[in-house]
Amino acid sequence: MNWSSLNDRAYAPYSGKSKACVVESRSGKLFAGVRTENISYPITIPAVQAACAICLSEKEIPAKLYLEGDELDQLHFWKKEFQLEIIKTDSLPESPLEDPHKKWNADLDITARLKELLDQAVIPNSDFPVSALLFTSDGYLEGVNIEVSDWTKGLCAERVALSKAIAAGVREFTRLEIHTKKGEISSPCGACRQVITEFLPYNDIILHHADGTSSEHLTLDLLPFNFKSSSLKK
């Protein structure tokens, strides 16, 4: 793996500006993050936000940030938030990156795993844990909601799972399952619905509600008349 191949995993069809970085946790684990754009530009996920959120979702604390150049959106915030050591380098760290794409196991109890993941949510502000499993043809990726000192820099569980997938080079998905511990129903927020529509427009979204019931929906039904325009793509 090198910077070129990691940058190639970025999803940047609108700006054409691929960005990537690697966060090293205090325990020495390496988590990649890449720019994940959205047709609704303001909810684009910068590489450093993705990498730090992914690290936090795995119960790790960001300590170092590796980058190739000088420009990364939100760099100043995340550097200050975790007192990150910034390392500019032409080559990636020698240790392997964490692979978040878990292989399918027929014994997986989806509901039980979603409930277990709720304990990994980083929610100092809301105390509202959310978990998500994003499925592929042969595996899945996990996500929990992440909150930091600036609410606008947090990421929902659905977007953490998608950030993991894009950074891992995974683009084909089958369905998304979501669970909340509290509230009347489990439901993706509006921003997540827009991001989910970007990658899973005709897929099933299964919502596991706090009362033990579940419901199944088509992504497009969750966000009718969603914003889209082919003229925005470069």
From TrEMBL:
The keyword Transcription does not apply. Its EC number is 3.5.4.5. GO terms for molecular function: cytidine deaminase activity. SUPFAM superfamilies: Cytidine deaminase-like. NCBIfam families: PRK05578.1. Homodimer. This is Cytidine deaminase. It comes from Gracilimonas halophila.
